[in-house]
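2.7 Reproducibility. Because tokenized structures are sensitive to small changes in the input, we list the exact sequence used for Sulfatase N-terminal domain-containing protein, including any N-terminal residues retained from the expression construct. No trimming or masking was applied before prediction.
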Amino acid sequence: IDTLAADGIVLNQYYSHTTASTSRTSLLTGVHPIHTGLQNRFIMNHSPAGAPLHYKLWPQYLKQYNYSTHMVGKWGLGFARREYTPTYRGFDSFVGFWTHSKCNYNHTSCETYRHLVCGDDSRHNTDFTANGTGVYSTHHFTDLSLHLIDTHNTAQPLFLYVA
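Resulting structure tokens (single pass, no recycling of outputs):
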């Protein structure tokens, strides 16, 4: 990690908002939450909203400089339209959860909206996957991240966002 940081950029000061969607949107856009319209809420599973599409995310900027861009973990920035999802927002690949709530072992998501609704939420890019089911998500995401780093072509810069 020290070598990666020495050869890259270190974010050493960042003020987080109280909700995940707001913090992620702010981090990935560089825009204060009050300007994204997400300052007072997080994006619910049933919500038709997402991180505003008129803001470019880090990986979209980095693609201009030939970066390989990958995300592992929790997205939480909306999925009501495919344009909201990670691989449409600049990431070459995504493995993890799209929703804000999840079970770390069976990789499902439950949310109460009029009644309790649960469903699968383990994804590879835009597809559902059973990979990692029964494996604690932090361990699964660590293994995937290490695999991405180990197999990465070092001639190309890498942006790996692990949430």
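The chain has five helices and seven strands.
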